[in-house]
Write a structure and sequence with these properties.
80% of the residues lie in helices and 0% in strands.
Length: 210
């Protein structure tokens, strides 16, 4: 199966998403939201960089350009990585379980596959969280002509994080390793709560200035 989804046109990607195929799914969409958010950071920074009005922020804007490109590229990679991580899990669920030995083996394979399946959405949350600080800077230092795009970026970032979390959650709820589950839940919940507060704060600042 071709899972180089980043090479598809928007229309082609949506058609695949619309179909009954299991991938791409919500995890890939979360990564796409992250890619769009970081791309918006780059756009606003590009529209600000080199302008006399914002000369005092030149170095900061250059740093945002560099960071946003790195985050964009990572997010694009995660679109495919999420899909790739689902395939071993789907294969694990198709294993035979006609006797106790097969059942135990199947469960072991499933448990390992579940941990692999959560890695891309967890990374999506962490990657998206890095975008927030860039948006916060752009809300203060970016071109006023592109300020609305900062607000859009904040909502795309939050959508990426919240969406990726659901993809993590559906796998966590099937895991037997309670320590792993509890530790990951705690780590992610801290990021999600902070991200939610900061993204809405950025959005509100943008809305007030428009």
């Amino acid at each position: 199966m071709d899972i180089t989804f980043y090479k598809l046109s928007i229309s082609e990607f949506c058609d695949k998403l619309y179909s009954k195929e299991a991938i791409p799914g919500g995890g890939s969409v979360a990564a796409l939201c992250s890619a769009m958010a970081s791309s918006l950071c780059g756009m606003v920074a590009n529209l600000t960089y080199g302008k006399k009005k914002y000369a005092e922020f030149e170095e900061d804007i250059k740093n945002i350009l560099d960071k946003s490109e790195t985050l964009k590229n990572k997010s694009i990679e995660l679109i495919n990585e999420d899909a790739e991580s689902f395939l071993p899990l789907a294969k694990a669920y198709s294993l035979s379980s006609s006797n106790e030995e097969e059942k135990n083996y199947k469960n072991k394979v499933i448990q390992n596959a579940l941990k692999e399946a959560v890695k891309p959405p967890v990374e999506c949350i962490r990657t998206s969280f890095e975008i927030i600080s860039l948006l916060g800077e752009l809300a203060e230092k970016g071109s006023i002509l592109a300020l609305s795009d900062v607000g859009v970026g904040a909502m795309c970032t939050l959508a990426a994080i919240k969406s990726a979390w659901l993809t993590v959650l559906i796998n966590l709820n099937l895991m037997d390793d309670t320590d792993y589950v509890n530790n990951l839940r705690t780590e992610m919940q801290i990021l999600i709560d902070k991200a939610s507060a900061e993204c809405y704060e950025i959005y509100s600042k943008v809305e007030e200035k428009l």
